[in-house]
Amino acid sequence: MAADVWKQRDVAAAFLDERSLIIPDRPRQLEVLLRVFRFMSRPPQRILDLGAGDGLLLGAVLEAYPDATGVALDFSPLMLEQAKQRLAKFGARAITGEADLQSPSWLKTVEGPFDAIVSGFAIHHLAHERKHALYKEIYDLLIPGGLFLNSEHVASATPFIEKMFDDAMTDHLYQRRRERGENVSPEEVRRAFMERPDRAANILETVEKQCHWLREIGFRDVDCFWKYFELAIFGGMK
């Protein structure tokens, strides 16, 4: 499967090394995520991070809610190593585990319910039918009033808008790499972005369609809370 590319340590390492470089406006995204959390009916006690990567999202929530505990699940051994390092400061409040979201068997690795479930740039690697099924599994794991937020790579509405995203990302990456002192050309940066090894693993769907799925499943107050071309934060309450 295309998503198996994340089992390759070199691909996972390249993503981790470039994460803050690749994703524009990351601090703002975290601020939006935590702002939505503040509107929960009560502070979250148990949080699940699906496709946790280096544990950035779970770490941000645990920082904001000192009484909370969390579980970080990921498919990539290297990602889990990085997550353990980031989350080590939380001690017993944070645990990690390996799980493959491509199958419902991932549910065997956790014990619900959870007050909140988050995911960051992971679910877009799943086939659309599996995305929909996973959203239902997430819904079933949440307490009434629980929150689901997905910080995600989504599809552009049209090929023309996709070109806008590629152009925006190329400019962003070029500027960031120049700031780091790298002697690169815009053409080199664009080629690297368009030919990156994990690109084939992307199975993108529009944020509108995915919000529709969430409403069908039963989530309420569903919305896209932040968006920059193909980058979005969306979700809802149970």
Assign an overall shape.
Answer: globular
CATH fold field value: Rossmann fold
What structural class do the secondary elements suggest? alpha/beta
Oligomer: single chain
**CATH architecture tag:** 3-Layer(aba) Sandwich
How many H/I helices?
Answer: 8
Percentage of residues in helical conformation: 40-55%
H/E topology pattern: HHEHEHEEHEHHHEE
Give the spatial strand order of the biggest sheet: 3-2-1-4-5-7-6
Q: Biggest sheet, in brief?
A: 7 strands, mixed
| CATH class designation | Alpha Beta
Uncertain parts: 1-18
Domain count, please report it.
Answer: 1
Q: Please, could you describe this protein's structure?
A:
By secondary structure, this protein is α/β, with parallel strands linked by helices. It has a single domain, classed as Rossmann fold, CATH 3.40.50.150. 42% of the residues lie in helices and 21% in strands. It has eight helices and seven strands. Strands 3-2-1-4-5-7-6 form a seven-stranded mixed β-sheet, sandwiched between helices. Helix 5 crosses helix 8 and helix 6 packs across helix 7. The longest helix has 21 residues, at 159-179. It is globular, with a radius of gyration of 17 Å. Residues 1-18 have low confidence and may be disordered.
Strands, helices and their partners?
Layout: H1 9-22, H2 26-37, E1 46-50, H3 56-64, E2 69-74, H4 77-87, E3 94-98, E4 114-120, H5 128-141, E5 142-153, H6 159-179, H7 186-194, H8 207-217, E6 220-228, E7 231-237
Parallel strand pairs: 1-2, 1-4, 2-3, 4-5
Antiparallel strand pairs: 5-7, 6-7
Helix pairs in contact: 1-4, 5-8, 6-7
